[in-house]
Amino acid sequence: MDRSHLYKNLGINLDMAVEAHDILQQERQSNVSGVEVYENKVGHTVITTVKVTSPEGEKAMGKPMGHYVTLDAPHMKINNRDIHQELSGLLAQEISKLIHLAPNDPVLIVGLGNWHATPDALGPKVVSHTMVTRHLHQYAPEELQGGLRPVSAIAPGVLGLTGIETAEIIKGVVEKTNPRLVIAIDALATRSVERMATSLQLADTGIHPGSGVGNRRTGITEETMGVPVLAIGVPTVVHAGVIAHEAIELLLQQFHTSPSLYRLYKGLNPESMQQIIEDVLEPFGQDLIMTPKEIDTLIESTSRIIASALSQALHPSISGTTEGMQYLQ
Fold first, then answer.
1. Can you tell me the mean pLDDT for 204-230?
2. What does this protein's UniProt record list under function (predicted)?
3. What are the tens digits of pLDDT across the range 3-26?
4. What is the DSSP code (8-state) at residue 56?
C-alpha cells in the first residue's frame, strides 16, 4: 500500500509540504505537476522551497497554492549560541522574503497551541520571548520608538481551555488592532523522527491548527482573517502509526536478501500492513503520537530562535548581532 493511502486511512495529515512532495514524487516516479521545488544549502542548513503553482498541484499536495520554505537544521538540537544565532539569521532572511510590509505597518504575532502540553507549547513560548512594541507607538514619544515596528502578540490558547474557537479570538483581535500581517506560530507533526525539533517551515498560506494530529480547526488564513497570514511551524511530534509503518518497511526490505523470504514478501496483502498497525496502536487508535523526552528543552531553545528571527525580520533597527540576539541567551 502506498504511503499516501496508508496515512489517509490512518487519519494522518502531513503538515510538512516537503514531506508531502517527497512521498508523491516517490510514488509517481516523476515530478509532481503544478509543484516547483528549489533546494539551497547554507552552512549546515538545507533550505528547500516548495512552490504550489496550480490547482492541479494543490489537489495533489493537499496544500493551498503558495510558498512553503523548510529549513532542515540537524544542528539546531545542539545547545550552542553561535549555531542558534546563525540559524535565527537564516530564518529572518527567509521571513523577510515572504512578507511585504511598509516600515511602520503593524504586525500581530499569534502563538497557537496549548501552554499546558509541552509538545504543543511552541507558539505560547515564542510569544513569551517576543519583543512587543505596539504600546510604544501608542503611548511613548516618537524619539523613544527607536525605529521599531508596531508589533503585538497573543497566545489565545486552545478550544478545550477557552471554549472559543481560536480563529474567532484572533479575528476579534485583528478587527480591533488592524494589523497588516498576522504571523502564526504552531507545533507541527512530521513523518520523520529526524525532523523533530530540527526543522522549521514557513508558509505564506496560513495554517489549520491541529491538522497534523487529526484535530482540524478553523483555518488561520487570509480568507478567514482578512489580512495576509504567514505561518511558522516546527515539527515536535510524529504519529505512532508512521513509526510502526517505517519499522515494517525496513523489515520487509530485508526480505529481498533471501529468495524464500522474498516470495513471502510478494505474497503479503497490502492492506494487512494497515491492519497490523491498527492492532498495535489499540486502544489509542489514531490518537497516539510520540515526542522526544527532552522536548521541554527543545521547545525552549527553538522558541528563542524563532523570537530572535522575528525581531530581526520585523524591526529595521535590530541586527543579527545586537538586540535580536538577547532572546538566545
1. 80
2. Initiates the rapid degradation of small, acid-soluble proteins during spore germination.
3. 776 677 666 777 899 998 998 888
4. H
For 103-152, give the DSSP string: TT--EEEEE-S-TTSGGG-HHHHHHHH----HHHHHHS-GGGSTT---EE
- Residue 141 — φ and ψ, nearest 5°? -60, 155
Instruction: DSSP letter for 31, please.
Output: P
| Neighbouring residues of 44: CB distance < 8 A, sequence distance ≥ 6 | 73, 74, 75, 83
Q: Tens of pLDDT along 244-296? A: 877 777 777 776 666 666 666 555 666 777 777 777 777 776 678 889 999 99
* Residue 31 confidence (pLDDT): 87
Task: Kindly tell me if the per-residue pLDDT of 326 is higher than 60.
Answer: no
Q: What long-range pairs does 76-79 form, CB within 8 A, spacing at least 24?
A: 76/197, 76/198, 76/301, 76/302, 76/305, 77/197, 77/198, 77/298, 79/297, 79/301
CA distance 329 to 327: 6
Nearest to 212 by CA among 94, 95, 119: 119
Q: What are phi and psi of 312, to 5 degrees?
A: -70, -40
The pTM of the full predicted model, rounded to 2 decimals, is: 0.86
Q: How far apart are CA 218 and CA 254, in angstroms?
A: 44
69: enclosing H helix or E strand: strand 66-72
Cell digits of residue 226: 482578512
Q: CB burial class (10 A; 0-12, 13-18, 19+) of residue 225? A: buried
What's the alpha-carbon Rg for the chain, to the nearest Å?
21
What structural domains and CATH numbers belong to the chain? 105-243+284-328 (3.40.50.1450)
CA–CA dist 200, 72 (Å, integer) = 7
CA angle 115, 120, 123 (to 5 degrees): 70
- The residue to which cell 496483502 is assigned: 269
